[in-house]
Specification:
The chain is built from 17 helices and 15 strands. The chain is of the alpha/beta class. The chain has two domains: about 325 residues, Dihydroxyacetone kinase, domain 1 (Rossmann fold, 3-Layer(aba) Sandwich); about 210 residues, Serine Threonine Protein Phosphatase 5, Tetratricopeptide repeat, CATH 1.25.40.340. Strand 14 and strand 15 form a beta hairpin.
């Protein structure tokens, strides 16, 4: 288990700071990530990678010559926020555009995607590469739905080499997409991982058994079988991948990846059998690697990744590089950057507000103080629900996000903010601190809701209901979830529909909210019968059946608390 830490909530940030102290000739610490410590030519395409922490050496360990220019780091197993991604990209921008790479997980897709939209609006050309190598999570016909696991290393290495070779943004994007399309992975776990501060692992595997098709965020496998010999395990891993070998392909890059607690000697033993298996399939292995490249904290297990090489991909896979956790050949000598990094965010502007709107802002702030206190108490329960078919971090993310939102709202009210600004700044703080899918969704939800409010007037009942409708529209548009997907949306839609219809019928807000909260809570409980169609739980659909969705449950909890709050102030 993860045993060395001070405050669990500071684990990721402290680890990143220590990493940068150890590798000052490779990386420089910035807010929410790292950038290259070495100079790069102006106009070079920047490769920026990232995701949640807990996967070292992914992603900060990939930053250096011939690889990435920067890495964004979220909290453990949680996507970095939209603001964090955009902030790191601005620091890494060299003027040639940005390749933004990450594993294909809902929170990353949302946060990196919205960040890319913001950066494009600022005039920075950004291209998205979502790695989709995990064959256990979707069929070959649905390649775009696959998760990104250890294939991150190969795709990002190839993209980084292409960028350092001076290719244009269009060409680097083309090469990276080709590498992703020709990369496949499959893994097994012998024991689950434990989050810092947690007393139990996110999942367990019965003694003598192994889980097949693991995820790298503490998700359990999609099936189990007895532990087998190295020879048989090599066949389990390789056979899943060889079925997707392109016709005529004879050369392959291979990475045998340890997940955190598997000894290197074990990997070396397994490699001898993997090599036999690949060679017998008529494949020549180019620059094989065995070690830890994409881990899952202290998970015991391993995965095999193959990239089906063509001449171009092989050239970039074999190219020299020098990153803290991955080195090859002898890159050209380069100088360290000597400039001073300006890494400060400007304080948010607080528009003038009326007395009525400031009074409403204080009420909103008081509500979110209560929400934060409730979610802190419910953190273990929400984590337990999420761990059934996810990574178990939902409670932690909701607690962090709501606490940050509450504090931001207190500061906004103290600065004289009105209702609209207070709710918007609270949403931004929630997204920035929580990270992950829930952080992105709640940040988007609150900021969208704020657009129906005003800093000049107290919000009317109709404006509150309209805000709920805007929140739903924003979540559906960018989050892409629909009714029946077993997500927060299944609880949000009944809430919004009830609140809208009740207020339109002339019901007081307190009564309308009570009805809407009841509808939301009932719908959240009803998600137990649904099969997930989005997110990390989708590959574990059978394990999810019979258990409600954690995101829908937490929304129902918040709606019910708010109903009591509104009723007490009628």
């Amino acid at each position: 288990m993860t045993t060395i830490f001070d405050a669990p909530e500071e684990f990721a940030a402290t680890a990143l700071a220590g990493f940068c102290q150890i590798y000052p000739n490779h990386v420089r610490l910035i807010t929410n990530g790292v950038v290259r410590a070495t100079a790069v030519p102006k106009g070079k395409v920047s490769v920026v990678v990232g995701g949640g922490s807990g996967h070292y050496p992914a992603f900060a360990g990939y930053v250096g010559q011939g690889m990435a220019d920067a890495a964004v780091a979220g909290d453990v197993f949680a996507s970095p926020s939209t603001a964090a991604v955009a902030r790191v990209c601005r620091q890494a921008n060299n003027g040639g555009g940005i390749i933004l790479g990450f594993g294909n997980y809902a929170g990353d897709v949302l946060n990196f995607g919205v960040a890319a939209e913001r950066l494009r609006a600022e005039g920075i050309d950004v291209r998205i590469i979502a790695v989709t190598d995990d064959v256990a999570s979707a069929s070959a016909d649905e390649h775009a739905k696959r998760r990104g696991i250890a294939g991150d290393l190969l795709v990002f290495k190839i993209a980084g080499a292409a960028a350092d070779a001076g290719l244009s943004l269009d060409e680097v994007e083309r090469v990276a997409l080709q590498a992703n399309a020709r990369t496949v992975s499959f893994g097994v776990a012998f024991a689950g991982c434990t989050l810092p501060g947690a007393k139990e692992p996110l999942f367990t595997v019965p003694k003598g058994r192994m889980a097949l098709g693991l995820g790298i965020h503490g998700e359990p496998g999609i099936s189990e079988q007895d532990i087998v010999s190295a020879r048989e395990l090599a066949a389990v891993l390789a056979d899943k991948l060889l079925g997707e070998k392109p016709a005529g392909c004879t050369r392959v890059a291979a990475v045998l990846n340890g997940l955190g607690s598997t000894k290197y000697e074990e990997l070396f033993v397994l490699w001898t059998e993997v090599q036999k298996k690949l060679s017998s399939a008529g494949l020549e292995i180019v620059h094989p690697e065995a070690g830890e490249f994409v881990t899952s904290l202290d998970m015991q297990g391993c995965s095999l990744t193959l990239t089906w090489l063509d001449e171009e991909l092989e050239r970039y896979w074999a190219a020299p590089c020098d990153a803290p956790a991955f080195r090859r050949g002898r890159p050209d000598a380069v100088e360290l950057r000597m400039d001073v990094i300006v890494d400060e965010e400007a304080a948010p502007a607080i528009p003038a507000a009326s007395d009525a709107s400031r009074k409403s802002a204080a009420c909103i702030s008081a509500l979110f103080n209560e929400i934060a206190a409730m979610l802190k108490e419910k953190e273990p329960e929400l984590g337990r629900i999420d761990a059934i078919a996810g990574d178990g971090d939902h409670g932690q993310g909701m607690q962090r996000g709501s606490d940050a939102a509450a504090k931001a709202m207190v500061a906004a009210v103290a600065a004289g903010a009105g209702a609209q600004t207070t709710l918007a700044l609270g949403g931004d703080a929630w997204a920035d601190r929580a990270g992950g899918t829930s952080g992105a969704i709640w940040g988007l939800l609150l900021r969208s809701w704020s657009n129906a409010l005003s800093d000049t007037d107290a919000p009317s009942d109709a404006a509150v209901a309209e805000g709920a409708r805007l929140a739903l529209d924003g979540v559906i548009r960018l989050g892409r979830a629909r009714l029946g997907d077993k997500t927060l949306v299944d609880s949000l839609i009944p809430f919004v529909e009830a609140l809208t219809s009740e207020t339109a019928a002339g019901k007081p807000l307190a009564d309308a909210w009570k009805t809407a909260a009841a509808a939301s809570e009932a719908a959240a409980q009803a998600t137990a019968s649904l099969t997930p169609r989005l997110g990390r739980a989708r590959p574990l659909a059978e394990k999810s059946i019979g258990h409600p969705d954690a995101g829908a449950i937490s929304l129902g909890m918040v709606a019910q608390l708010a109903a009591g709050f509104v009723a007490a102030r009628r």
